[in-house]
Amino acid sequence: MLVLLQQPPEHQSMNTDQRGLPVFWNRSLLARLISSFLLLSLVMTGVAGVVAFFQATDTLEQSVIERLRVAALARQDELDAWVSTQANDVTFVARWEEVLQSTRTLMTAEPTSLEYQVAYTRLAETLREVVVRRPDFDELFILKNDGVVTVSSRRASEGQDLHTSRYYIAGQTQTFIQNVYPDPHTSQPTMTIATPLLDPLGRRMGVLAVHLNLERMDRIILDRAGLGETGEMYLVDKTGLFVSGRRFGQQNFTLPMHSEGIDRALAGESSTGRYLNYRGVPVIGAYQYLDRFELALLVEMEQREAFAPTNQLALHITLAGIVAASILAIGVYLLARQIARPILQLTDAARRVAAGNLNVTAPVVTRDEIGVLAQVFNQMTTQLRGLYERMEQQVAARTAELTHTNEQLTSEIAERRRIEEQLRHAKEDAEAANRAKSTFLANMSHELRTPLSAIIGFAQLMQRDSSLTPDQREFLGIINRSGQHLRDLINDVLEMSKIEAGRMTLNESPFDLRPVLNDVEKMFLIRTQEKGLQLVVDCAPDVPTSLYSDERKLRQVLINLLSNAVKFTQEGGITLRVRRQEPGSRSQDDGVIEPSLPNPGLQSLVFEVADTGPGIAPDELPTLFQAFAQTRTGQQAQEGTGLGLAISRRFVQLMGGNITVQSEVGRGSVFTFNITVPAAEPAEAAQEAAPPQGA
């Protein structure tokens, strides 16, 4: 508890930095209370404001859409009424007796006659007078049955051949209204009404047609009543062109316009929604397709104007939320001060205790949880004071105990150094004795092998004498064999001394494996034939013949193993097998998994020497490869020193392998060893095996 209270200030600052919080947040409870309540109030106010904003937006959007829909319906009704009125007026003019009479004269009289001229003049004045009285008529003209304009309120149009025009073809049989289209001569938007001129007998004399003045249509469409400052209404034909000569002008009439509302209206849909208008401005629009006029009517208002009230509402909600949060913050501050005052007093007492003054007590000013906390703190301070006094006593006792223990450790360290010094001297003496033993064995082996070689040599020379008796020849054979046995003993002892001294190394060179196996086979062939044994040397075809290793040590291991096999086998046979083993494969005989070779050029070769001898007892297998260890069978034979297998195992280990044995009493033994060798080039092995020139 004391450790927790005495946490250094720099640790507190570091913890604050790791959490990414302001320093005052961790050091002021009052700040945390006010900030928490203020944040909560802002969140609640924000949620309420967002909900109110979206609800108001939806309501206002529906109101604007309804206003736009009503305006569109009203303009549609006005357009229908205006066009119907113009069609009725054209039909009325076509039934005037004066117009019919003058038209009949023009159709029957010669153009050069006075009667034709009078009728033409009277009819032209009548058409011009009608156009003046009817401002919605832009041009009133009469076409003959061949489609040529005979009389027009505009003299410049007379003589035009309009027999291919749509309104002329349809106006020959009925009153026809051709909706807005671009005039082929002026490229202006035009609407034409045509009706047939009939004589009293009902025969067609021609066609009366009128080009309407679209300014009235513009006034109907461009009326912004109820559409606000940014609201607009416009007509678009099936090609996406605006139908309004006054507002958009001739230049814009030839530019097709596209927007989501225009495209849907021209597709025959009638609906409302938010989208970007033809200028790319976000709007709320109502659109519908007018089948009678083959036009799309669109009424739109920019979203910024439509949603302006909701933006003001959001601003008012935000201001109200800020005011409410400020009032709440003041109230929370006053309440938090009442809550935090006893906590601050308790904190001050805790700081003084942390500074080492254990006689401080916290004032208990309330009976609530904070008052209970102050009482518990005072109890804890009292217990801590008693614990501190007891700890001082225990520390003093522990210090005395550690001092005594330190003295003992110092004495033990000195004794240990003395023993280590003695061990070092003993090690040096042992190494000197080992070197002396190696020197002695080397000298003795030289001194013994010199006369021994002479004895063996003279014995072999004497055996060639034909005058020897059988007994003498047998005695010489005993001398020869005993000398060779003694020489083998000396060589084994010398090899073992080199192994113990750590001076045994590999003399690697390229050689051919096949001649080595042949030499070993020839070496033991006579001995096995004398004992009636069968000797088999089996080398797998995939075994590489050219190797790079210590040929002498490999030959010595094979000789040692085959010598033991021949020595102890009385019947049956001996088999030497050589095979190549893949890295990571499991040997069927010894159960050993070959390790993965570090170099792809390395190869693992397995050698097995199997015999049908008496076998080895299981209790003798653990000590079989120890120096000077012999089995009971070897002891009974009274041959050997017990060093052959120990030397063979060391040679195999030097060549990167291991040797194992499996044996069953009465059935024989199998000695298996493997070596890791790099394959040599055949040329290198042949060069190494070839005798030197001049030998």
CATH superfamily of the domain at 506-685: Histidine kinase-like ATPase, C-terminal domain
Mean pLDDT rating: 77
| Estimated helix fraction | 40-55%
| Assigned CATH architecture of the domain at 506-685 | 2-Layer Sandwich
Q: Which of globular, elongated, flat, extended, rod-shaped describes the shape? A: elongated
Radius of gyration: 63 Å
What would CATH call the class of the domain at 506-685?
Answer: Alpha Beta
- What structural class do helix, strand and pairing data support? alpha+beta
With helices defined by DSSP (H or I, 4 residues minimum), what is the helix count? 19
Structure write-up:
The structure is a single chain. With 695 residues, this protein is an alpha+beta fold. Among the domains are: 95-213, Beta-Lactamase (2-Layer Sandwich), CATH 3.30.450.20; 506-685, Histidine kinase-like ATPase, C-terminal domain (Heat Shock Protein 90). Helix content is 55%, strand content 17%. The chain has helices spanning 2-5, 9-19, 23-27, 29-94, 97-108, 114-133, 166-171, 215-221, 249-253, 260-266, 303-306, 308-354, 369-463, 470-501, 513-530, 551-568, 632-637, 644-654, 682-689; strands at residues 137-143, 149-152, 176-182, 189-198, 204-212, 232-236, 271-276, 282-290, 295-302, 509-512, 534-539, 546-549, 573-581, 602-611, 658-664, 668-678. Strands 2-1-5-4-3 form a five-stranded antiparallel beta sheet. Strands 11-13-14-16-15 form a five-stranded mixed beta sheet, covered by helices on one side. The protein has a four-stranded antiparallel beta sheet with strand order 6-9-8-7, sandwiched between helices. Strand 1 (137-143) and strand 2 (149-152) form a beta hairpin. The model is unreliable at 1-18, 247-253, 586-597 and 689-695 (pLDDT under 50).
